[in-house]
Specification:
364 residues; alpha/beta; Metallo-beta-lactamase, Chain A; seven-stranded mixed sheet; binds zinc ion
């Protein structure tokens, strides 16, 4: 029934062009549906998220406003360093000498209505296949998949990506449990303080927190069933990772709060989730600790639309503020990345290995 409902909503071009009419539709839809919402306020919250998403869909800006910040390899780029490919949402591939690591690979891009209405969600095989084709063209051997937490936009596709790549999963105990319930055959539960050496990678597991949405961490109530709805993909214990190889360090998280800052450890690249206000609140303090050479704000795209639509900023992001804070802290170069356009992290003291625009200025 909900598929008819969702296609009714999505299929209407008029609704895409009028938020007030969409609001009416949503109210009617919500009255008709029974997807296990516990209260009226829950309905309102979801309707609000849906409306925000709609607004972003109509007006969402992409990377074209910031060409001076976007980095990517060109034909002349030296490939000696670690190559970083952005996969959308908080997903990355790191490559080094035929080895690869994946972090939070998520390609299905479940639509906002299915999430907001509590519909059954599942991996989109054709989206995953398309994305993996992008990555497989470079034939790296994927050593491991690191997952920062169990939400659907980080973990939903992992069992299928594991089956495709035969890579091992490294995640919190609850994320491993969820992945297994969703079909993964194995998984290695880690906790903050753990260190794993896999191939050329040294991976330090760090504590992290998750941004709040409407005052609380979304989807954090444990379930004991096979995950079906977005709410079943619970956060669990959020993790960050410090990845070391080739004399370089990459820090990656998917967001955070002031309650848990990154370590006092200089890094070459800091990938910091910036989807929600909490993570932006901690940005200055995080930069002070990490003193990164490069700052890549992450989880900023609207992950409710397919990757093929191209990068659009998400409804709750505020990139101008991120720019202002980075300029004020002046602790590294702010960069952006587009989907599936690899960039080799320049080794220190070798500026020629980067394809950068020397005219970059951080606007304030
Ligand atoms: Zn999350």
């Amino acid at each position: 029934m909900y598929s008819t409902l969702i296609s009714n909503i999505q299929g209407s071009q008029a609704a895409r062009n009028s938020s007030s009419r969409l609001g009416e539709k949503l109210k009617r839809s919500l009255r008709r549906t029974k997807f296990g919402f516990s209260s009226i306020s829950e309905h309102l919250k979801h309707a609000f998220i849906l409306l925000l998403g709609f607004t972003a869909h109509a007006f969402g800006a992409g990377l074209s406003s910031y060409p001076h910040l976007v980095v990517a390899d060109s034909a002349g780029t030296s490939r000696n360093g670690v190559r970083v490919t952005y996969l959308g949402t908080n997903g990355y591939q790191f490559e080094f000498k035929g080895h690869a690591l994946l972090v939070d690979p998520y390609f299905s891009r479940v639509d906002l209505f299915s999430v907001g209405l509590g519909a059954r969600i599942q991996p989109n095989i054709s989206h995953i296949t398309d994305a993996m084709r992008h990555l497989a063209s470079r034939e790296p051997n994927v050593d491991a998949i690191l997952v920062t937490h169990g939400h659907f936009d980080h973990l939903l596709d992992v069992p299928i990506v594991m089956a495709t790549t035969r890579a091992r999963l490294i995640a919190s105990a609850s994320s491993v449990e969820l992945a297994k319930r969703a079909g993964a055959l194995s998984g290695e539960a880690v906790k903050p303080g753990d260190v794993r050496r896999i191939g050329p990678w040294k991976i330090r597991v760090l504590p992290a927190t998750h941004d709040r949405l409407f005052g609380k961490v979304p989807f954090d109530r444990p379930q004991s069933r096979v995950p079906q709805r977005a709410a079943d993909w619970i956060c669990g214990e959020p993790l960050a990772f410090l990845i070391e190889l080739n004399g370089q360090r990459i820090y990656i998280d998917s967001g955070g709060t002031l309650a848990q800052l990154p370590p006092n450890q200089k890094v070459d690249l800091a990938i910091l989730g910036m989807a929600l206000p909490d993570s932006r609140e901690r940005l200055s303090a995080a930069l002070e600790r990490l003193q990164p050479r490069y700052i890549l704000p992450s989880h900023q795209d609207n992950f409710f639309v397919p990757l093929s639509n191209g990068f659009q900023f998400g409804p709750l992001t505020d990139f101008r503020r991120v720019q202002r804070d980075c300029a004020r802290e002046n602790r590294g170069r702010l960069i952006l990345m587009d989907y599936f356009r690899p960039w080799t992290l320049p080794t220190p003291g070798n500026p020629k290995s980067q394809n950068t625009n020397p005219k970059q200025k951080t606007k304030s």
